[in-house]
Write a structure and sequence with these properties.
two-stranded antiparallel sheet; two-stranded antiparallel ribbon; about 160 residues; mainly alpha; about 10% strand; 7 helices
Length: about 160
């Protein structure tokens, strides 16, 4: 029986999030912000940008990139349930082990409650992503069945199934 693996349907998704995160980092560093939340966002951004985002275009990926790919894939294949934030990071091509960096109640934050994210710029970026809104619309919960998530992500062309 062939072994199944998964990949992002579009590498562009991960590339776009890298651009957004770099723009946010530049803004936070250049803005002279001194708030503790801002400093924690900068630290989180540095962590995210240090090979924790999938890059399948790299011809010679380093060890950390290979580990990120492995962890990303293991979350899909070895977990029965995923948290909302883990699912969101998977869709964006980010290692789901970093899900604690995002506001834990993101899955239930409504547009009229967005003020609560004003000082949490990183969570605000994730909130604004279309993937967040589609995921919330479909699952409306913090715990998501992995098989249902994979089926949904394949149907919406966020993931691609590869038979080896």
């Amino acid at each position: 029986m062939p072994e199944l693996s998964y990949n992002l349907f579009h590498q562009r998704t991960a590339e776009n999030i890298i651009v957004e995160l770099k723009r946010l980092r530049k803004s936070l560093l250049g803005g002279g912000h001194a708030k503790a939340e801002i400093q924690s966002d900068v630290s989180s951004l540095e962590t995210l940008l240090s090979d924790n985002i999938l890059n399948f275009k790299a011809s010679n990926p380093n060890h950390k990139q290979l580990k990120t790919r492995e962890v990303w894939h293991e979350f899909l294949t070895e977990s029965e349930q995923l948290s909302f934030n883990e699912c969101l990071l998977i869709l964006l091509g980010i290692s789901p082990k970093l899900s604690e960096m995002i506001e834990p109640s993101l899955y239930k934050t409504n547009l009229n409650e967005i003020k609560s994210l004003q000082d949490k710029q990183l969570s605000l970026i994730f909130f604004q992503r279309v993937e967040n809104h589609l995921l919330r619309e479909r699952f409306r919960s913090n715990k998501i069945n992995t098989a249902e998530f994979i089926k949904w992500a394949l149907d919406y062309k966020y993931l691609r199934k590869i038979e080896n």
